[in-house]
Request: fold
Amino acid sequence: MADKRKFRILMVSDFFYPNFGGVENHIYYLSQCLLKLGHKVVVMTHAYEKRSGVRYMTGGLKVYYVPWKPFLMQNTLPTFYGTFPIVRTILIREKISIVHGHQAFSTLCHEALMHARTMGYKVVFTDHSLYGFADAGSIHMNKVLQFTLADVTQAICVSHTSKENTVLRSGLPPEKVFVIPNAVDTAMFRPAAERLSCDEIIIVVISRLVYRKGADLLVEVIPEVCRLNPKVRFIVGGDGPKRVRLEEMREKHSLQDRVEMLGAVPHAKVRSVLISGHIFLNSSLTEAFCIAILEAASCGLLTVSTRVGGVPEVLPDDMVVLARPDPDDMVIAIQKAIFMLPQINPQAMHLRMKKLYSWHDVATRTEIVYERALRCPNQNLSDRLSRYLSCGAWAGKLFCLVMIIDFVLWHLLQLWKPATDIEEVPDIVLSCHQHTGTLHKDLIE
Reply:
């Protein structure tokens, strides 16, 4: 049997370490598993404060922190062509075969995919979020996504709901979109050694305190649940503009001793917060998948969540209680969850999560997408421009103009600095014990 093809992958996104979130964790864990499978993985993101240049992480993961500062919400300023020289240099230096962009909100992702296609590379895009269709921001974002995905080789979504949303927003053929869910590090998120007493029921909330995450729902739900259940206490972890509303609610209803506000919780300490509770509450108004639910279930918590987006696809019915994003319905769901608590076995729930979700499984399924992408035939510029023309009467012509300029710029860059003048970097080969542990001292930041 022939050896499997080894890929050389460039992961691109504005969202990566030292930030922590769903996209950041996805890129990191997927990269680590792909490295263990024998592939080469390089990450490209923007600079974070003093973190700039080339860094190495566990397992030999190489990260290019490009010297662009974030402009808005961790996104770099859109330049269209400003990133082309450095993207081209990284692709040639690292001998990349596939460019994998993450998140529709990432400016760097869109620009890198555009330049990679101009240079003839195969590109894969993963969408991690749901977006609307009616408001001005959604219309603008959907048009940008339509432009990027018009020429993408393959696409990945984290849930079937997310796939439907992405296909409708971008006009991408459904057969080019794969569904590969997120996963959870069950070695990190495990239950407490001893089961908690039910004398006092603790409900944990860990979320960014913003409108999209349903912080306004919490303001109405928490006082009512406390009124109905004298032995219930809340622990709220997270920060954001809606934190003030929660603190005002706590003062108004005199719940200082029953609602604990932790502020921002570092990812390394999330487990210690989760295992102090019985129920995990997710009040999101929109969610493509929600890794936080997986982390809570892996720690043995029963989940109460709004029935939005891809959330109903995440957990079996006996591990989650779903409700409409309505205060009254959520209070009823929490009451039901409290009644179910005696039947919950945290250790058994953890073992089930270990079987259901694995980053190794995500990586092997992503390998199939890469293999399919590399089998796609190459297309010349005229064939590619015909795809952009189909994006709209005016938008199509504008997209074609952008790509023609990109194509001309590529040839100018080749004249200015030929590929033969760009030094290819040697690959780092790690021993088996280095793959499972941390890097040797000379590779650590």
Remarks:
- The longest helix spans residues 395-416.
- Confidence is low (pLDDT under 50) at residues 436-445.
